[in-house]
Amino acid sequence: MSLLNSMIFTISANTGGWELFVNSLLPMITGAIQYTIPLTLITFVLGILLALLIAMMRISNSKVLHVPAVVYVSAIRGTPLLVQLFIIFYGLPTIGLTIDPFPSAIIAFTLNVGAYASEIIRAAILSIPKGQWEAAQTIGMSRSTALRRIILPQAVRVSVPPLSNSFISLVKDTSLASLILVAELFRKAQEIAARTYDFLLLYVEAAIIYWVICFILSLVQTIIEKRLDRYVAK
Fold it and tell me: Isomerase among the record's keywords (predicted)?
């Protein structure tokens, strides 16, 4: 028997919690399906779109675009995600702007993903040799056309691995949404634990579910990276 199974079995034997472990599985998975996964997908898509915009502003020669982007990235990266969540959900109502828990989580996670992913995208774009830009200009392409047709397709391949890691990290970060009452996976574990007082068993169960989700995503990441591999074996 594996160490993990032994640990769960020991916990169950001491607390009589094996039945609880099984019965709590469905509510946790339901929380993951209804909130954790949708929150991850929505915020990642919106965050990538925001990140692309911010990255373009960062590499722009215009200070009107460059400076606000730098300030935004610095502010988001320099403050904890939990604080950002609390500002949006608990802070904004003090000035008359009340936002429901799930939209608050979407806003906070989108802003956070946008800041971090923008640096990944910016670095990927800057990693493309300047000769690519010059070649595009030589054949009469504008800067925007060269970016869209030549630079970005190459930058995508460079940015996929770190962006994939960000996506997997986002799955785990969504557990913070439980603190603003979003009924996601970890919130379900907290609610059940508050009734049964089997905190260790239920939190270990939640950790296992997160691990399974991230493990599956890691396998998908590996497949995508192989398909986008820039080097073809000879």
Answer: no
The reply to whether 85 falls in a domain is yes
Q: What's the token pair of residue 208?
A: 């296992």
Print the domain residue range for 31: 3-227
Tell me the whole-structure pTM to 2 decimals.
0.85
- On average, the pLDDT of the chain sits at 87
CATH number of domain containing 32: 1.10.3720.10
What is the rounded CA–CA span in Å between residue 200 and residue 16? 13
**Which DSSP category does 71 fall into?**
H
Place of tokens 């068993």: 201
| Integer Cα distance of 101 and 34 in angstroms | 14
Is residue 175 pLDDT above 80, yes or no? yes
Q: Is residue 162 part of a domain?
A: yes
Residue 93 belongs to a domain = yes
